[in-house]
């Protein structure tokens, strides 16, 4: 065969561009000596099979609520130049300009807040009190975080922390004075709890408030450097018009030399022109690995004076004559009441973490459906990333986990907005467990997605890499994940002891399975057994049941050896970790099963079943405790592992539809999710 | 808000929202279109009866066919015979290698004033609502075929283009506006909503212009159509004959060649000072609000820095007054359905939009929550007293849950969702001329 003329070769390359990969693959098979045409991009939406289920219906399940309001807000952000629309090839993407200085990012964040405020996005965030308004607020919050974590945290500090403190800890006089003014940002608030020396241990903070009977004022002081308020979002420099004017101060309350414990006060830190008030010193926390659109600051108080009325007094009050009165006598409970505003933050963080995982997965899966690497046959076309079983194993279990966690986040949100005094304990436990589990999952998802996109994952414009930095903080703020998980186990232990002592059955927190006979697990489960809801629930519940019993007996053994109750729990930290994980995963599985069973039979339900099996068996595969404590035989564990691999193959055809059901608008994804060849072509270089 | 200059016709005909952030995932698949692999070829090319043949005339040269909507006394309103005839013709020509280009135009002073809804309402009042549903089913199927058509269509909009008229033109690749063009989607004042897949193209107009056009039913002239991207070219009415002659000589389906041919006759035009398109800042500010109520409230508030100058203010006020008035006159439930439909369409392909339109339509024909469509037709088209009595009569009486019900499947054992003919796999879902 004659070598093709250069013109003919060029024509064939162009034809390859025009005709798409099918043609080029066809060329390969018929005449293997044809020079390779250039790579070309084939959109996964055309190359993949059409959806086998109703994608919109799955989106409604996963979003759970207010999908119209979400789309409205997404579109508001797409349409405003403040959200930095950037043209890449035929696509436009919105994302903050992370190349700006922290000062510029802060100012941009505040301008976006102004815009959203003007559009009525925050309407009813303080003043609406019904559960629906609460759910709407949470939905909109998730969407805002999809654009930028700084934007969501600035709003979170103002609405959830500052506003939440006034709402929950204040009384009518505070509500009347502050809530309306805060909803429309006339008053800009922050929340000064954490100190340099004390973060998770809020009870140990060193700031001191003393009551001065003569003037009827509190005098608040920072007695030492470790007492400086630290990480106070919204406290530092954002440019005069946008400065926070007020803060909640958490402080020890001293009355006549008696420490009444931690209380919350309102103090003005700047005047309306943005000048710092006398006896207040403020400094910046400096540049961070992410969240530079938030002005985290440090505050010192030099005996500032605030009126007695500024004590948030729903829990406890100081009368003008200096008498201390409280409706809650137990100081532990009183302290717990002061932490109420943090619960809403945890709920919100957990829900946001899932949405961000969806962004990462949608990008990585779409990329894996278009990027090819290595031929597996001589002269054959290179193979799509997602057609490699190993690549499927990296991404698809995370897709399943993220779907299951969506349902769990929706459960948590509903539990929170419908909370009652009786449900406060379970709200605390669920929010702690899910906040930790969902944010850890988010970091893991983003890391895996970053690596799954190779070098492209490093580019800020592709989002995944920068999201890692921006959302890393989720693991430690509003409660350090490790501390929260230890608290969950402690709470479960308390349930256990109470049930045993009173010989009552377990009730609540999903622990009812503890009352049933211990499940028996087959030594050699078949594929269909492994995929059955019954088997999955049994094995996941068995782990929790056994770990709870083990934890209780280890703690009591340490106590019997003379350790204090507290120390005994600390020494049992390994079991506590395992137990909290077992509790979280069992909770998520149960919620996801419930979601599946409410669906009528059909293809959507089948896919939910695949996702559920993938979730459950991945949990089994990834936790050594199933083998360590013998819940599964070695053969059983091997079978579960094989089943995960099979499930990857079963989910592969649905991969695109699943990430489409995440409901993230195209413009909030990134160039590698679409035509990354066009986006990187020479002709676009000048647009960058 | 960044506004593009009057857009490049090829680019804009491919993708509407050149200024917005909605990428069209499937733009580049355009040329890979679209085998029509469904058995609709059984339609005979001549259509049914003699009358139908008269209502759509077909002329043509070697490679070009000119379809002329021919009911001038009814302003070319689409009768069901016309729809069937157009279906037949479009299907037949897609597979005919001798046809490279379709031109669609109207006889008389209208391109097409809409669907023949009076006939629909009459048939529904006389008998079963499903007869009306059938009309819309065929119309939407036609819209879909046009939106996913593999050969270029040039629509010459030399007169009135409303409702159904937009459905048979705007989904096609090239839309030529003239100084005689009057465009509107006036359905909300009729107790209906912008159907024929209009939610698809309205949602892809710059900013919130689509919400404005759909909710108010405002009239646009040819320049405004061009500026917003509803039209791809502006040609003087007097040059149309020469354009047609030139297009008749085209021997290719290549959109670039056809575009170049039209370009020769295109005229640079500028917006009138009073054009709504010059009010995009207000439109974006107000029509971006979450609900119809909030949109109206925001229009009544003293707005923005743009109207500080005294002189501008009076013009501005007049425009705002008429904008508010048109929504006050419209059916409240229609307004809410329209807003929801356009907003949902942003995330949907043209097929989903049409399936949605069909659901909405069937609920309306069944008069479940409201008889507004029948009342609107009576007041505007039959009795012409222009004084419809909407029920519910106020926006705040329209419960969101009632609106929700319009968007779900119809509860009737014999009813099913609109089944669109299979086009080339997934491509058809996204590929449209917009």
UniProtKB/TrEMBL annotation, chain A:
<dbReference type="GO" id="GO:0003997">
    <property type="term" value="F:acyl-CoA oxidase activity"/>
</dbReference>
<dbReference type="InterPro" id="IPR036250">
    <property type="entry name" value="AcylCo_DH-like_C"/>
</dbReference>
<dbReference type="InterPro" id="IPR009100">
    <property type="entry name" value="AcylCoA_DH/oxidase_NM_dom_sf"/>
</dbReference>
<keyword id="KW-0276">Fatty acid metabolism</keyword>
<keyword id="KW-0443">Lipid metabolism</keyword>
<dbReference type="InterPro" id="IPR006091">
    <property type="entry name" value="Acyl-CoA_Oxase/DH_mid-dom"/>
</dbReference>
<keyword id="KW-0560">Oxidoreductase</keyword>
<dbReference type="GO" id="GO:0055088">
    <property type="term" value="P:lipid homeostasis"/>
</dbReference>
<dbReference type="Pfam" id="PF22924">
    <property type="entry name" value="ACOX_C_alpha1"/>
</dbReference>
<feature type="binding site">
    <location>
        <position position="194"/>
    </location>
    <ligand>
        <name>FAD</name>
    </ligand>
</feature>
<dbReference type="InterPro" id="IPR002655">
    <property type="entry name" value="Acyl-CoA_oxidase_C"/>
</dbReference>
<feature type="active site" description="Proton acceptor">
    <location>
        <position position="478"/>
    </location>
</feature>
<feature type="binding site">
    <location>
        <position position="233"/>
    </location>
    <ligand>
        <name>FAD</name>
    </ligand>
</feature>
<feature type="domain" description="Acyl-CoA oxidase C-terminal">
    <location>
        <begin position="537"/>
        <end position="669"/>
    </location>
</feature>
<dbReference type="GO" id="GO:0005777">
    <property type="term" value="C:peroxisome"/>
</dbReference>
<keyword id="KW-0576">Peroxisome</keyword>
<feature type="domain" description="Acyl-CoA oxidase/dehydrogenase middle">
    <location>
        <begin position="190"/>
        <end position="303"/>
    </location>
</feature>
<dbReference type="GO" id="GO:0033540">
    <property type="term" value="P:fatty acid beta-oxidation using acyl-CoA oxidase"/>
</dbReference>
<keyword id="KW-0285">Flavoprotein</keyword>
<dbReference type="InterPro" id="IPR012258">
    <property type="entry name" value="Acyl-CoA_oxidase"/>
</dbReference>
<dbReference type="Pfam" id="PF01756">
    <property type="entry name" value="ACOX"/>
</dbReference>
<dbReference type="GO" id="GO:0005504">
    <property type="term" value="F:fatty acid binding"/>
</dbReference>
From TrEMBL, chain B:
<protein>
    <recommendedName>
        <fullName>3-hydroxyisobutyryl-CoA hydrolase</fullName>
        <ecNumber>3.1.2.4</ecNumber>
    </recommendedName>
</protein>
<comment type="pathway">
    <text>Amino-acid degradation; L-valine degradation.</text>
</comment>
<dbReference type="InterPro" id="IPR029045">
    <property type="entry name" value="ClpP/crotonase-like_dom_sf"/>
</dbReference>
<comment type="function">
    <text>Hydrolyzes 3-hydroxyisobutyryl-CoA (HIBYL-CoA), a saline catabolite. Has high activity toward isobutyryl-CoA. Could be an isobutyryl-CoA dehydrogenase that functions in valine catabolism.</text>
</comment>
<dbReference type="InterPro" id="IPR032259">
    <property type="entry name" value="HIBYL-CoA-H"/>
</dbReference>
<comment type="similarity">
    <text>Belongs to the enoyl-CoA hydratase/isomerase family.</text>
</comment>
<dbReference type="InterPro" id="IPR045004">
    <property type="entry name" value="ECH_dom"/>
</dbReference>
<dbReference type="GO" id="GO:0006574">
    <property type="term" value="P:L-valine catabolic process"/>
</dbReference>
<keyword id="KW-0378">Hydrolase</keyword>
<dbReference type="Pfam" id="PF16113">
    <property type="entry name" value="ECH_2"/>
</dbReference>
<dbReference type="GO" id="GO:0003860">
    <property type="term" value="F:3-hydroxyisobutyryl-CoA hydrolase activity"/>
</dbReference>
<feature type="domain" description="Enoyl-CoA hydratase/isomerase">
    <location>
        <begin position="65"/>
        <end position="407"/>
    </location>
</feature>
């Amino acid at each position: 065969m004659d070598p093709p003329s250069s013109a003919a070769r060029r024509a064939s390359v162009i034809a390859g561009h025009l005709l798409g990969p099918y043609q080029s693959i066809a060329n390969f098979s018929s005449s293997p000596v044809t020079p390779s045409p250039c790579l070309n991009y084939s959109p996964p939406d055309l190359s993949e099979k059409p959806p086998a289920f109703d994608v919109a219906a799955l989106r409604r399940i996963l979003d759970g609520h207010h999908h119209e309001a979400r789309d409205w807000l997404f579109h508001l952000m797409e349409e405003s130049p403040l959200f930095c629309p950037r043209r890449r090839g035929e696509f436009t993407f919105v994302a903050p300009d992370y190349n700006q200085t922290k000062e510029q990012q802060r100012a941009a964040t505040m301008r976006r807040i102004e815009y959203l405020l003007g559009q009525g996005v925050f309407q009813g965030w303080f003043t609406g009190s019904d559960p629906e308004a609460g759910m709407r607020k949470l939905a909109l919050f998730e969407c805002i975080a999809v654009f930028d974590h700084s934007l969501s945290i600035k709003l979170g500090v103002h609405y959830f922390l500052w506003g939440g403190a006034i709402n929950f800890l204040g009384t009518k006089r505070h509500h009347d004075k502050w809530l309306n003014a805060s909803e429309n940002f006339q008053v800009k608030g922050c929340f000064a709890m954490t100190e340099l020396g004390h973060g998770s241990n809020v009870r140990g903070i060193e700031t001191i408030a003393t009551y001065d009977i003569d003037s009827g004022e509190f005098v608040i002081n920072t007695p030492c450097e470790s007492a400086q308020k630290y990480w106070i979002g919204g406290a530092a420099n954002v440019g005069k018009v946008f400065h926070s004017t007020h803060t909640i101060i958490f402080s020890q309350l001293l009355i006549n030399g008696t420490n009444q414990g931690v209380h919350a006060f309102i103090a003005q830190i700047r005047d309306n022109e943005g000048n710092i008030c006398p006896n207040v010193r403020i400094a910046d926390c400096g540049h961070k690995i992410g969240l530079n659109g938030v002005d985290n600051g440090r505050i010192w108080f030099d005996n500032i004076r605030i009126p007695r009325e500024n004590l948030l007094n729903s829990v406890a009050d100081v009368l003008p004559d200096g008498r201390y009165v409280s409706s809650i006598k137990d100081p532990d409970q009183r302290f717990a009441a002061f932490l109420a505003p943090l619960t809403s933050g945890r709920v919100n963080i957990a829900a946001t973490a899932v949405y961000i995982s969806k962004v990462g997965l949608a990008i990585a899966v779409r990329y894996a459906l278009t990027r090819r690497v290595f031929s597996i046959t001589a002269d054959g076309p290179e193979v799509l990333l997602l057609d490699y079983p190993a690549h499927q194993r990296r991404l698809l279990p995370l897709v399943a986990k993220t779907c299951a966690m969506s349902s769990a986040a929706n459960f948590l949100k509903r539990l929170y907005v419908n909370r009652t005094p009786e449900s406060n304990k379970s709200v605390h436990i669920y929010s702690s467990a899910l906040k930790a589990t969902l944010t850890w999952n988010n970091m893991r998802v983003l890391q895996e997605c970053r690596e799954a996109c190779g070098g492209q994952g490093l580019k800020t414009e592709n989002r995944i890499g920068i999201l890692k930095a921006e959302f890393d903080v989720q693991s430690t703020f509003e409660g350090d994940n490790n501390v929260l998980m230890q608290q969950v186990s402690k709470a479960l232990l308390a349930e256990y002891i109470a049930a045993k002592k009173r010989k009552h059955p377990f009730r609540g927190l999903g622990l009812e399975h503890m009352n049933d006979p211990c499940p028996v697990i087959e030594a050699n489960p078949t594929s269909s057994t492994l995929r059955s809801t019954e088997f999955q629930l049994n094995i996941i519940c068995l782990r929790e049941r056994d770990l709870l019993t083990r934890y209780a007996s280890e703690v009591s053994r340490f106590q019997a050896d003379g350790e204090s109750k507290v120390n005994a729990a600390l020494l049992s930290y390994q079991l506590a970790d395992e137990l909290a994980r077992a509790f979280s995963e069992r909770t998520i599985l149960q919620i996801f099963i419930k979601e599946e069973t409410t669906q009528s039979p059909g293809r959507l339900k089948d896919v939910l079943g695949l996702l559920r099996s993938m979730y459950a068996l991945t949990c089994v595969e990834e936790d050594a405790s199933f083998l360590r404590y013998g819940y599964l035989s070695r053969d059983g564990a091997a079978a579960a592992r094989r089943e995960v691999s099979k499930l990857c193959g079963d989910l592969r055809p649905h991969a695109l539809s699943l990430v489409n059901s995440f409901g993230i608008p195209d413009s909030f994804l990134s160039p590698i999710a679409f035509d990354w060849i066009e986006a990187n072509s020479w002709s676009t270089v000048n647009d960058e | 808000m960044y506004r593009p200059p009057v857009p490049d016709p090829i680019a804009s005909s491919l993708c509407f929202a050149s200024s917005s952030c909605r990428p069209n995932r499937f733009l580049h698949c355009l040329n890979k279109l679209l085998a029509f692999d469904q058995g609709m070829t059984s339609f005979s090319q001549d259509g049914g009866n003699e009358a139908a043949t008269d209502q759509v005339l077909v002329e043509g040269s070697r490679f070009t066919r000119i379809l002329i909507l021919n009911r001038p006394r009814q302003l070319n309103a689409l009768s069901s015979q016309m729809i069937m005839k157009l279906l037949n013709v479009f299907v037949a020509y897609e597979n005919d290698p001798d046809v490279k280009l379709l031109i669609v135009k109207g006889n008389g002073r209208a391109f097409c004033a809409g669907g023949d809804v009076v006939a629909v309402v009459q048939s529904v009042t006389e008998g079963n609502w499903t007869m009306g549903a059938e009309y819309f089913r065929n119309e939407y199927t036609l819209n879909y075929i046009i939106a996913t058509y593999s050969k270029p269509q040039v629509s010459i909009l030399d007169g009135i283009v409303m409702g159904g008229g937009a459905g048979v033109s705007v989904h096609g690749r090239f839309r030529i506006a003239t100084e005689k063009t009057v465009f509107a989607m006036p359905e909300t004042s009729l107790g209906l909503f912008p159907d024929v897949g209009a939610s698809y193209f309205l949602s892809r107009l710059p900013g919130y212009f689509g919400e404005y056009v759909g909710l108010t039913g405002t009239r646009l002239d040819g320049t405004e159509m061009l500026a917003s991207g509803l039209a791809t070219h502006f040609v003087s009415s007097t040059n149309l004959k020469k354009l047609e002659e030139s297009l008749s000589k085209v021997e290719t389906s290549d959109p670039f060649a056809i575009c170049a041919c039209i370009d020769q006759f295109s005229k640079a035009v500028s917006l009138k000072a009073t054009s709504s398109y010059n009010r995009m800042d207000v439109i974006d500010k107000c029509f971006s609000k979450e609900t119809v109520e909030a949109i109206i409230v925001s229009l009544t508030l003293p707005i923005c820095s743009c109207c500080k100058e005294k002189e501008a203010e009076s013009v501005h006020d007049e425009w705002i007054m008429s904008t508010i008035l048109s929504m006050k006159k419209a059916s409240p439930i229609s307004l809410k359905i329209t807003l929801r439909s356009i907003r949902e369409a942003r995330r949907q392909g043209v097929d989903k939009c049409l399936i949605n339109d069909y659901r909405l339509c069937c609920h309306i024909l069944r008069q479940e929550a409201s008889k507004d469509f029948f009342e609107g037709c009576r007041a505007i088209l039959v009795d012409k007293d222009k004084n419809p009595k909407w029920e519910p009569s106020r926006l705040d009486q329209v419960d969101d849950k009632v609106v929700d019900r319009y968007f779900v499947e119809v509860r009737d054992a014999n009813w099913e969702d609109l089944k669109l003919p299979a086009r080339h796999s997934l491509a058809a879902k996204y590929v449209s001329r917009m």
